[in-house]
TrEMBL record:
This is Transglutaminase family protein. PANTHER family: BLR5614 PROTEIN-RELATED (PTHR33490), SLL1233 PROTEIN (PTHR33490:SF1). InterPro entries: Bac_transglu_N (IPR013589), Papain-like_cys_pep_sf (IPR038765), Transglutaminase-like (IPR002931). The lineage of its organism: Bacteria, Pseudomonadati, Pseudomonadota, Alphaproteobacteria, Hyphomicrobiales. Pfam families: Bact_transglu_N, Transglut_core.
Length: 279
């Protein structure tokens, strides 16, 4: 599969640009193999690649020229291997909820277990899915995932930013990134380690072609099963048709393109995002 991702910013007049942080190269792993990743930027920029603390491939673009239009375009060719019906070999110590992570796992998981924005309302909502003192862990996570997909209205939101978990819970609606944050904060409040993921979703109901936007979901760490993807927007579990690009604790750290320009606030005219998938 090939993915072309083009982001265009427009301004009233030529602007100077700060260094931009780009998260556009998918993460290699068991489910995804990246064959190539090409990056094109206008105006011309000096690009340096590095891995961040979580192993995301980060391109840092530095600009010397001014322009009234900034275009960042990536083209990726990759293979997907995730099965449609995955089997997760959860360790016996974690098959039933509640359970405790091993001390070594707990240290490694660190901030992924901490909840900052989950209010009492979110925690109470999450506890409502616990069937009893001996609940199946995977079923609990699946029920919360399905609970968001079935109980909340999806809306595509173009403005930047993400709703806090309690806002999505109160509103009863949100975008994919809002649902991912609600899911992560809900399961963290129950003691699970969760991280957020940005990337792409291959929607087989519409086939290959143009996409409206990038996609976001969450992953939960279960001993033996590893990091298991949960997509509350599509009510799915597992990595089938998901292309992870970046992982992080917070959504604002895994945006595909982030940076700023130097000039008047009202000089910014807006942006367009175009994503196209082909075989």
């Amino acid at each position: 599969m090939r993915i072309r991702h083009r982001t265009t910013y427009r301004y009233l007049a030529p602007m100077a640009f700060s260094t931009h942080r780009l998260l556009l190269r998918p993460r290699d792993g068991f489910a995804v193999h990246v064959r190539r990743c090409d990056l094109r930027i206008s105006p011309a920029a000096t690009v340096n690649w590095a891995e961040d603390a979580l192993g995301n491939a980060v391109a840092t673009a530095s600009f010397s020229a001014m322009a009234d239009t900034l275009v960042v375009e990536s083209e990726v060719e990759l293979d997907l291997f995730a099965p449609p019906w995955p089997v997760f070999n959860i360790a016996s110590s974690a098959t039933r909820y509640p359970f405790a992570y091993e001390p070594d796992d707990w240290r490694d998981l660190g901030a992924m277990t901490r909840t900052d924005s989950a209010t009492d309302d979110v925690a109470a909502w999450a506890r409502g899915f616990v069937a009893g003192p001996d609940t199946d862990s995977l079923s609990l996570l699946r029920d919360i995932n399905f609970g968001i997909a079935r109980g909340f209205a999806y809306e595509a939101r173009e403005p930047e930013g993400t709703q806090a978990a309690h806002e999505t819970l109160a509103l009863g609606r949100g975008s994919c990134r809002d649902f991912a944050v609600l899911f992560a904060e809900a399961v963290r409040s129950l003691g699970f380690a969760a991280r957020l993921v940005s990337g792409y979703f291959r929607d087989r109901s519409v086939g290959l072609g143009p996409l409206r936007s990038t996609h976001a979901w969450a992953e939960v760490f279960l001993p033996g099963g590893g990091w298991i993807p949960f997509d509350p927007t599509n009510a799915t579990m597992g990595g089938y048709d998901l292309v992870p690009v970046a992982i992080g604790r917070d959504m604002d750290r895994i945006m595909p393109v982030s940076g700023s320009y130097i000039g008047p606030v009202d000089a910014y005219l807006g942006l367009t995002v175009e994503i196209f998938m082909t075989d």
